Amino acid sequence: MWAEVLTAAVAWLTVVCLLLARVPKPPGLLDSPLDMEQTEDSER
Question: What single DSSP character describes residue 27?
């Protein structure tokens, strides 16, 4: 029982992470990538 639940949860999280990795970074949802981009821009 628990093996199936854990396997399904891991598979679902993997799919979600892959989808998030494919989507361009939304400006309002994730603040840390934007902060990283701003620091990279300021270093140039």
Answer: T
